[in-house]
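2024-03-11 09:14:02 INFO worker-7 job=invfold-0412 stage=load source=structure_tokens
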């Protein structure tokens, strides 16, 4: 498997992990607790997805 394919697969795993972390953080919480946690969880998800997009953008020019 070429390095770029491996790197892309690892980025996909990281992206999925970010979503699972968000879901685990917000699932089965009471209404009050959910309202406290959801903004933090969303900010964390957004931060992680932004990092994945940045790494993916650096990877694509190398593949071309």
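2024-03-11 09:14:09 INFO worker-7 stage=emit residues=64
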């Amino acid at each position: 498997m070429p390095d770029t394919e491996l790197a892309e697969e690892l980025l996909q795993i990281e992206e999925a992990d970010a979503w699972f972390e968000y879901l685990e953080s917000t699932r089965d919480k009471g209404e009050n607790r959910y309202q406290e946690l959801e903004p933090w969880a969303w900010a964390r998800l957004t931060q992680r997805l932004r990092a994945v997009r940045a790494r993916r953008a650096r990877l694509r020019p190398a593949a071309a």
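2024-03-11 09:14:09 INFO worker-7 stage=report msg="Residues 7 and 38 are 30 Å apart (CA to CA)."
2024-03-11 09:14:10 INFO worker-7 job finished
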